[in-house]
Amino acid sequence: MFERESVLADRPRGPLPPLVVVVVNWNGMADLRDCFASLRDCRYPGVRVIMVDNGSTDNSVAWTRKHHPGVEIIEAGANLRWAGGNNVALRRIRDEGGNPLILLLNNDTIVPEGSLRTLALALAADPLAWLATPRICYADDPARVWYDGGVVGRRSGWVRHDGIRKLAGKLDPQPRYVDYGTGCALMLTSTALAHLGLLDESYHFYGEDADYSLRAREAGGRILHVPRALVLHKVSATLGQESPYRAWLRSRSHVRLMLTHWPRRQWPLLALAQAGYFAGHMAWNLWHGRLATALAVWQGAVDELRGRAH
Hints:
Elements: E1 19-25, H1 29-40, E2 48-53, H2 60-67, E3 72-75, H3 81-96, E4 101-106, E5 109-110, H4 115-125, E6 129-138, E7 141-147, E8 150-152, E9 159-161, E10 176-178, E11 185-188, H5 190-196, H6 208-218, E12 222-233, H7 244-261, H8 267-287, H9 291-306
Parallel strand pairs: 1-2, 1-4, 2-3, 6-12
Antiparallel strand pairs: 4-11, 5-12, 6-7, 6-11, 8-9, 10-12
Helix pairs in contact: 6-7, 7-9, 8-9
């Protein structure tokens, strides 16, 4: 894996940098209630919130205009997915100029008071960091962690969340550099946007955040993880936690990530590690009686290698 360097633990001080929060929404009105209420009460002066609506049919836009008139709304008119929706807002922010921090935030999240301030100050105070992430816990079990940094095995190609399902109180609260930041709550500097540009929409679903993080690392930036900043995540079941379609999408994006960021000289060793990776996922699903999902894990990898259309 990449080196994991600790960062000085002194709490950053100084003026709050301007902040734009981007929330992509597709038929998520039920989740927007908690998300926007938490942003309204976050006590971050001057925070700007942009919702990119991906063609919702559940009255999300009208509801937001009525209950949160301060939220800027961009109607994409179609489902551009996570990367495409965020890119609509990133283009607007980039074209406007200025140097705000930008938080890409899932609509199924809740941001506790003070967390945006903690995350923004830490990122603004670190000249090496281009991206930053908070600790993310399960909304229905806030003491238990969903994401506490992202780990990428540079030889194995295994990509995983650090600290998942562990108790937050038992994990290190000090900031540190990590391998990748999750798109559930990913803060960008203007330096990152200028050097890296937009998210790669060819991933279709999953993998865009890891790709962006690896691009940042390759360009000389760091990803700062700030555990004292907290976001609660209603881990989504939109596609079904173990659905064949979800497994197929994840496998495709995982293979695309390997092909994009791992040099060919590493492919022989990488292929062996990935065979174990996919075999493990297939075996896990077979053990739980999910034959269709197990087959989808393999089919997604094969389809991406063959370049089949989504």
